[in-house]
Amino acid sequence: xxxxxxxxxxxxxxxxxxxxxxxxxxxxxxxxxxxxxxxxxxxxxxxxxxxxxxxxxxxxxxxxxxxxxxxxxxxxxxxxxxxxxxxxxxxxxxxxxxxxxxxxxxxxxxxxxxxxxxxxxxxxxxxxxxxxxxxxxxxxxxxxxxxxxxxxxxxxxxxxxxxxxxxxxxxxxxxxxxxxxxxxxxxxxxxxxxxxxx
Length: 198
What we know:
The chain is of the alpha/beta class. Helix content is 33%, strand content 22%. It contains eight helices and nine strands.
């Protein structure tokens, strides 16, 4: 497991970017997060980037079974070691999963709010409530990009850079257009209330 560190003076805010938390996501997250490391550094504070936490059997982070995996044990050590001020988890999804990830009734079906498309198939939302509680994270962001589709990397990198350059998660979300916790998407006209899913 490779860990990239960009330590500033002062160290805070410390941003933690984690990719490849289950299954074969590393095939996508490793490339994407290594591109972030090679092309950007925070203006202030620090960044820790783990492009590939674990490659192995897929266990959903929504399942309590995930707490028994090597990936979760690694994740706990990293979070406890760095105590991040900002936490961004990077996943990838199969295109066939798009509608279930963004479905407004996902809260009723899976017990988690839907993800929101920010741009070009790149989705944003909150990490698994189970992980958020176990890792004792206040606001934890999830970014999903289509698996293996490099044509989506530009949009994903732009979003990741917003978090890298911001001094707080709230600042990053506002930069992405979530003013006062609400964002209306021009394409669909849908309005999303941030506190609902963060």
